[in-house]
Design brief:
The chain is 30% helix and 24% strand. It is of the alpha/beta class. The protein folds into 2 domains: 132 residues, 3-Layer(aba) Sandwich (D-Maltodextrin-Binding Protein, domain 2); 98 residues, 3-Layer(aba) Sandwich (D-Maltodextrin-Binding Protein, domain 2), CATH 3.40.190. The chain has a 5-stranded mixed β-sheet. α1 crosses α8. The longest helix has 16 residues. The two termini are 30 Å apart. The relative contact order is 0.19.
Length: 263
Amino acid sequence: MNGQSGTTHWALGILAAVGIFAAPPLVLAQDNPIRIAIEGQFPPFNYLDTSGELQGFDVEIADALCAAMKAECEYVTQDWDEMIPGLLDDKYDAIISSMSMSDERRAVADFTERYYDSPSIFITNKQSDLEAFAPDDLAGKSIGVSLATSQEAYAKSLYGRSDIKVYGTSPELYDGLAKGEVDVVFEDKLAAYDWLTNTKTGQCCEFRSEDIKDAAFFGDGAGIAVRKEEQALKTALNAALATITEDGTYNMINAKYFPFSIR
């Protein structure tokens, strides 16, 4: 990992198009690797395998984007609650870690086009008698959320009469629900889908509410965060995202993790 703190400047170059109708892809002229922050605690989007290597949907998308830009990239694992501060402090150049483009985050960072979308949802133990999830319905109940997430902000804003229990990571959140530490958890639907579908402990629980979307809290999907002054990098990432969408790479990665489109 590159721990340098000096500001990296990016410039855009154009590769010769292959074929008369082919769009020339933007590539990044760079002096240093693009440093990409990924949490590593949000399966199936990003996680550390038994060897300590980053894996997941976000990682494969990042790999594909770097290949499309013909850019050298390196990954930096970063705790979620320090993601934006680390970007602003120039510890890395971009965040590809399932970050929703909320108004609060847009105020301090810039984002690419959306690369996937996922609603939030309430999840309970299968034995729970909870059927309604409005603030009045959950008054006096305990709601689990992950630290520094849009779900935490939403729950604390709207569910003031509930006991909001904050967990450090999504795996800890799921474990808390499975152990009965909370009545319900409020989580990103696609991340929870993987736990419910592909893990033994997830068999305890199920989706119970309707999908919840609120642009003020959850933005309009997950995007790649960059510093506001790094417009060349943003432009190159958007061009690369278009490339992997058009050539089928995105769909191939999508199908590896989900049996439905998340775009």
